Amino acid sequence: MSNKVIITAALTGAVTPKEKNPNVPLTPEEIAEDAYKCWKAGAAVVHIHMRDDKGMGTMDADRFEKTAALIKEKCDVVVNMTTSGDHRASDDERMIHIDRLQPEMASFDAGSFNWMPAGVFMNSPQFLDKLGRLMTEKDVKPEIEVFDSGMMDIANYYVSQGVLKGPLHFQFVLGVLGGMAGTVKNLVYLADKLPEGSTWSAFGVGKDHLPIMMATIGMGGHVRVGLEDNIYYSRGRLASNPELVERAARLIREANKEPATSAEAREILGLKGMN
Known about the structure:
This protein has 275 residues and is an alpha/beta fold. Helices cover 37% and strands 21% of the residues. Helix 3 links the parallel strand 6 and strand 7.
């Protein structure tokens, strides 16, 4: 499996409207269709957010359930659900879908920071403790989203306390204003801090997506692409989710590696499999 690279497609996010890119999928049907197209293009995992009828991010568990069901009708892609899709949601509302649906994977944003200039991205120790214990109980693999280096120590703390189970899977998020800048130097620094046995992935936001993706492939990590993180294919040209996956798969093959299938991703990440 050392030659296999997992491509995660982050399809929607909680913010970007169709006015900025008409290819952003918003409804359960649109998200499921993009998930299928990305799976066909080489994605093994899809990271999903939900939107309400006005296009705003929501933690509506019914929408997560409907979207996941539509995806599973089409393909066996791993479904990774966000736990941070609506800044208005309470801690409990951020976890209802995890408790009810028990997805294979879900995000665990390992700390709070000033997401400039919008406000504080809040992930309190109390919330993370509850979320980690729920994920462990329900056998949901946490994707440890790391926006700054101290968040790795937070995740390791929860392992030491029995809240999370190792080995962990880290997702390095670079280029968010308020977190670590999207530089290869920062990527190398984070990778050097990985606990033994960990798996990891990385992405750069906006203009940083290509340098971080190419460096990650060269360093032996896994990659994430998608309209949640970057709406452009190149300067001035809007992207679609499938073509971002297609490019990632092409670059992986140019590096003499292969995109992992969903079954291979489950083996690499130690997932429980589809419900």
